[in-house]
Each structure stands twice: as C-alpha cells, then as structure tokens.
Amino acid sequence: MKKRRMKTAGPAGKRGTRYRPRALRAGRGPGSGSAPAGARQTIRRLKSELAAAQLRIEELSAVAERDFLLDIFNRRGFARELHRSIAFIKRYDATGALVVLDVDRLKPINDTFGHAAGDEVLKAVARVLSEEVRSSDVIGRLGGDEFGVLMWHLSETDARVKAASLEAAIDKLSFTFGDQTVRAGASAGVALLDKRVNPVRALEEADRAMYIRKAQRRHESRV
C-alpha cells in the first residue's frame, strides 16, 4: 500500500505552502545587502544633527570661558588653563609663574567718570598685557579689576622682573575724561609654579603677594 505524503501547513493554515519571511522573499535577509534607503537617510540626518550639536556645545563652552568685554579668558577659563598648566609642569618637571595684577584706582575712575571710562581703562590694561607677554602665555580677567598672567619657563628672578615690567607698562597709561587726565596703575603679585603646587594654592599665594605689593605701593606714593 502506498504511503500518503504529509503536506506542510503555512502560517495561514493553507496546506502545501512553505512559509518564507517577507524579508527573505524580497532578498533582504541577513547579509543580503545594506539598509533600505530611508534608513540610510535617517542615519545621515542624525549624524549631521549630532555634529551640529557638538559644534554648538563647543561654541557655548568657549563663550562661557571668555570675558565679553575684553575678549580674554574669564576666571573660569583661566582656572582651567591653570589646572592644565600645572598638570603639564608636574608631568614634565617644567617651571612657570603666575602673576596676579590688581588695577589701582579703578573704583574712583568709575565713580567719577562712569563705568564707560572704567571699561576703557580695563581694555587698555588688557591690551598692554597682551603686548608685553609671549603668545604662549595666558591672560585672564579674574574679577572686576583683577587680571592673571600665566607664564612659562621662568626662574624666580625672571618672574619678579617680569611682574615689575608689567606694573611699569600699566603705570605709563594715561586717560583723558572730559578735561581731566588720570592714571590707573597696577600692583602685581607672583607665585612660582612647580610640581609641588596646586592651582588653588597658587592663586591664593599670588593674590596674597599682590595685596602686599599694593600696600607697599600705596605707602611709597605717600612718601
């Protein structure tokens, strides 16, 4: 007697039809080719949007670390550069110096002639600092009338000589507001940077030295 052959039932219950997934019927099974055109377009669009977002983040970060008036680092940006520099100094046993300068008599100028006059003084000070230091050095505005300068490869003697020359250059500035000519000046304090120092202590040391120097200059002007 002849055996009857069993037929395979498909997913819809139809007998005699072997089920094949749609992707396989269309020739798009695993390893059969690239993603559909719509998916590729979506991937390209998402990559483009991600790149634009990353660029925008970088731009906003740069703006957040710049002083809008003087176009130099603000305290946040300067602190970041100081951290990076000290890390480099510790790794390669290099040397450097941090100079903190406080502009003298800025408040009386603001009070007498207005904040636009004070802004003019700050811009002139920033310009002098940029002219007096090397392009590899870093300049920042740490506060209202306080600036920081980060310099590389200086001995203690060289650092103190450079701080004095920065004071002298700013002392030479004169400003005319209305019918009055005034001078501002600046007092500088120095902290040496080596592999033993940390950023917070360096700023505190330079700031303390600056206030000592300011008191000294004030005493000298009365003599």
Overall average residue pLDDT: 85
Euclidean distance between termini CA atoms: 133 Å
Indicate the percent of residues in helices.
40-55%
Beta-strand level of the residues, as a percent range?
5-15%
Radius of gyration: 34 Å
Largest sheet: 4 strands, antiparallel
> What is the oligomer described by this structure?
single chain
Determine the structural class based on helices, strands and strand pairing: alpha+beta
Q: Total strand count, please?
A: 6
The side-by-side strand order for the widest beta sheet comes to 2-3-1-6
The succession of helices and strands, N to C, reads HHHEHHEEHEEEH
Total helices: the number is 7
Extract low-pLDDT stretches: 6-14, 23-27
List the helices and strands and how they pair.
Blueprint: H1 22-25, H2 37-64, H3 75-92, E1 96-103, H4 106-113, H5 115-132, E2 138-141, E3 146-152, H6 156-171, E4 175-177, E5 180-182, E6 186-193, H7 199-222
Antiparallel strand pairs: 1-3, 1-6, 2-3, 4-5
